[in-house]
Amino acid sequence: IIGDEYRWPTTVPYYMEDDLEINAKGVILKAFEQYRLKTCIDFKPWSGEENYISIFKGSGCFSSVGNRRVGKQRLSIGTNCDRIATIEHEFLHALGFWHEQSRSDRDDYVQIMWDRISEGKEHNFNTYDDTVSSSLGVPYDYNSMMHYSKNAFRNGSEPTIVTKIPAFSEVIGQRMEFSDSDLLKLNRLYKCTQGSTFLDSCDFERENICGMIQGHEDQADWVRVSNAPGGPETDYSNMGKCTGSGYFMHFGTGTASAGDTAVLESRLVYPKRGYQCLQFFYYNSAGPGDTLKIHVREYDEDNPSGKLRFIQTIDGSPQDLWQLHHVSLDVRKKFRVVFEGTKVGPGPAAGGLSLDDINLSETTCPEFVWRVKNFSHVMDSTPTNTPVFSPPFTSKEGYTFQMTLYPNGRDGYPGELSAYAHLVAREGDAGQTWPCPWKQITMMLMDQHPHIQKRMSNQRSVTTDPNMKAADSDLFFWDDPRKVGAEVTEPDGARYFRGPGAGTPVYLTHLRAKSRDFIKGGDAIFLLTMEDVSHLTVSQPVPSTTLKPTSQSATTNASDSCLDKQCQNGGVCVVDQGKPSCRCEVGDDWWYYGDSCQHRGSTQDKTTLALASSLSVLGAMLLITVVSVLCVKKKYKKRVANTGIALENAYA
Amino acid sequence: LPTAKILDFDVDGGLDLDIFDINEEAGLNLIEGDIVLDETQTRNS
What we know:
The structure holds two protein chains of two kinds.
Chain A: E1 11-16, H1 22-38, E2 42-45, E3 52-56, E4 61-62, E5 72-77, H2 84-95, E6 110-112, E7 161-163, H3 180-189, E8 198-202, E9 213-214, E10 223-225, E11 248-252, E12 261-265, E13 276-284, E14 291-298, E15 307-313, E16 322-329, E17 335-342, E18 352-361, E19 368-372, H4 375-381, E20 388-389, E21 393-394, E22 400-406, E23 416-425, E24 439-445, E25 458-463, H5 481-484, E26 486-489, E27 495-509, H6 510-513, E28 519-520, E29 523-532, E30 572-576, E31 579-583, E32 590-593, E33 599-602, H7 603-643
Parallel strand pairs in A: 1-2, 1-3, 3-5
Antiparallel strand pairs in A: 4-5, 6-7, 8-18, 9-12, 10-11, 11-18, 12-17, 13-16, 13-18, 14-15, 14-17, 19-29, 20-22, 21-22, 22-23, 23-27, 24-25, 24-29, 26-27, 28-29, 30-31, 32-33
Helix pairs in contact in A: 1-2
Chain B: E1 9-10, H1 19-25, H2 39-44
C-alpha cells in the first residue's frame, strides 16, 4: 500500500491477548523468528507505544493492511489459523501488503474466471490501481504466500484462477513460507539490508569461499573442490547437477600425515543475541579415528588476535552420505567459527572430511533430525493409511515423542503427506508429569536449499494441552502413554508405549513435497523439536509505564513527562509537542475521550445526539414560525383598526 | 493396563482449509477474504 503513513517502525510492538490458543502463541513466536531471520522486521512485546498490533482469537484469520495508526490494531489468529504461513500472511497484511493477485498487472499473469466465482464474492478479485498499491519493481509472483489458491471463492468445482503459465497452476496459494519475492518486496518496503538474526551462509560456489580463511598454524589446508577421491563424488548444494559448479571444502586425510590438522575459519561475525546455531552438511570419508572439531575464535580488547574456544567434536562416523549437523553456540563477542580437521591415525589412502552449505544464524537449533531415505520412492510406493514412524526422541525435559508420517496420506487424503506427533513412554520411565503439560512439538520438512534465508520449509506444530480430553472419553489425550497408548515392539526388540497422535492429514501435498529442495539426494529431512511453552499460559504483561509515540526508525524510551499524567480506562500517555496527553482506547463502536479518557462515547450516543440536535432545530424553527405568524397577525389587525375599513362578504 | 486405543486427533478438523475457507466458514465477509478495512478505506473502496 502506497503511503509512508502505513509503515510500522521496523520493530513492531505486539500484544498477545489472553484468548489466543497456546499453540497459536507458540507458532506466532516462530513466525516472528522467520521475520527476524529473513528480514529486518523485528517484534517486541508492547511496552506502551502509541500503535501496536493486538493479536487475538477472532472467528477467523484476518488483519488490516498497513499501520492504520489507531493505537490498538487488531489481527486475528482464530481456530485453524495457527499455521506459521497463515500467521506470516496476516502479518504481511499488517505490514502493508495486499494479496498478490490484486496487483494492477494481475491480468497479464492470471485469468480470473468470473463465471466460476460465488455470487457476491466478485469484489474479492478487484485490483488496485498502481497509484494505490505498488509492486515495488518485483515481478508478479506465483510463489507468493500472499496469493489466492486457484480455487478461492469458487462456486463449483472449477478453479477461479487460471495461470497464464500452466506450470504455475498448482503453485499459487502456497502456505509454506515466504517466497523470495515476498522477502524482496518486504525488504524493499522497509529498506532492510540484512536479516536481524542472520550471520553467514556459504555454499562454496564462489572462489572467495565467502571470506573464509585457512588456519596459519596447521599443517594442511581445506581445498575447494567439486569432487574428492574416496568421496564425495559431488557437492551437496547442487548434487553435481550443473557442470562447472558444485563446490565444497575438503580436507584430504588420505594424503595427510598422522597428527596433521587443517583449520578453516569463517569470516568475522558480530552477534547480538548471545546464542547461535551453526548448521552444515558434512561428508566423512576419512579414517574412523579422524575428527572434525568445532571451535569459536572470540575477539575482545584482551584478545585482539582472538582466543580459541572449543565447542564440540562432530560425531559423524564415516558414511557414504552428506550428513546434516547442528551445533549450538553461545557467543557474545565478535567471533569466527573454526572448523578443525585432524588426521589422527591410519585410514584409507583416499578420502577425507568435507563441508558444504554452512549456515550460521542467531536462532535455536532444531533438536532432532529424522532422515527418510529414498523419499520419492517411499511416497510413491506406500499405500494410503500406512504409517512410517520416526525413532523416539527424548527432549531435554525428559519427555519422549515420535512422529508418524503417512507418506501417501490417510483418512481420504491420498496424494498428501500426513503427519502426527505422539508421546512415548517406556516401562521404567519416571519423573514426568502426566498429562504432559504444554509442550509444543514441531514437525518441519526441511527445504534443503543451501541458503537458510531462501528456504521454504514446511512445518506444523501441536501442543500438549494437559486438560484436553480424548474424543468420547474421560481420559486425558496427553496422559501417560502407558495409560492411554498402545504397546509397540520395534524390529530390534525395543518395547515402548505410544500415545495417541495429534496432527494433520494435509501436512503437504506430494506435488509440493517434490518441489524445491524438500528431497535432495533422494532423501527428505524432518527437523523435530519439543519446546516448553508453559510460559505462554500466563498473560502478556500490560505496560506499567507509558512511552513516547514510536518513530519510523526506532522504538522509544520511557518518558518522564508522562509520569504524572494519569490516563483512565486503558488510555496510554504519549508526549505530543512536548506535553503529555492521553491516547484513549477505542473499539469498533465505542471510544473513550476527555483529558484522561474519563468519558465514554459510542455510536449509539452519537445517534442519540444527532436525533436530539435535529429535534431541537425542528422545535426552534417551529417556535420561530409560530411567533412570526402571531406578530404578523397582530400587526395586520392593528392596521385594519386604524383605517376603519369594515370587512364584509361582498359576493354572498 | 492400557485402555482401548484412543483415536488420533486431527488439528485441522478433518478439512483442508485455506485462510479464505476458514473465514467463509466463520461467516466473515471480509475484503479479499481476510482484510479488515477501516472507514477511510471503505469509502475509497
